[in-house]
Write a structure and sequence with these properties.
The chain is built from 4 helices and 10 strands. The chain is α+β, with helices and mostly antiparallel strands and 214 residues long. The chain has a single domain, classed as Ribosomal Protein S5, domain 2 (2-Layer Sandwich). Strands 1-2-4-3 form a 4-stranded mixed β-sheet, with helices on one face. It has a 4-stranded mixed β-sheet with strand order 5-6-10-7. The chain is globular and about 50 Å long.
Length: 214
Amino acid sequence: MVKRARRPGRTGRVKGAPRRTARVDRATRETKISTTLALDGEGEGRVTTTLPFLDHMLTAFAKHGGFDLRLTARGDTHIDYHHLIEDIGLVLGETIARGLGDKRGIARFGSAAVPMDDALAMVTLDLSGRPYLVYQVPLPKRRKILKFDVELVEHFFRSLATTGGITLHITTPYGHDPHHLLEAVFKAFGRALAQAVRRDGLARGVPSTKGSLA
């Protein structure tokens, strides 16, 4: 009698397997951030960063990735938004890496294309352990959404890729509304990451010929 490998459900869970969760806290003179992430979640995001647009983007990431995300953050935004956005990326990337552990049995690669009205975003990633970011998101002349500088999103993803050990390619071939462009990016990132962290019921060990994805 041949036993079939347990296949993951729609959320990527394998029945009986432990939920993959991690928490990271970071406090500096510039920012204070606390994050809890469940990779095998229901898409519930509770995000408070003092930056409403970023709250919206991270909640969309959690929803479309099927992750449960709890994130609170504050920082020296009276000076600039840069420190807080960059540090949130660092913390979230570290949380993803901790949640994955040794990465045994995961799919490793993920790719998603998400349209939003006039805009299209495409995200492809590899949980390789080698941080690298390609960010090709041409921005229109309108550089801010309220007070949020849209150029800082690149810094967010660069920081996340660095601590998460992710090879991350983000492109938007077209689109003219910056809100639509960036919201499509965060949704596509969530869906691509969901593919990559998904437990492959037929996989054995770490998905690498090296035997490690560190």
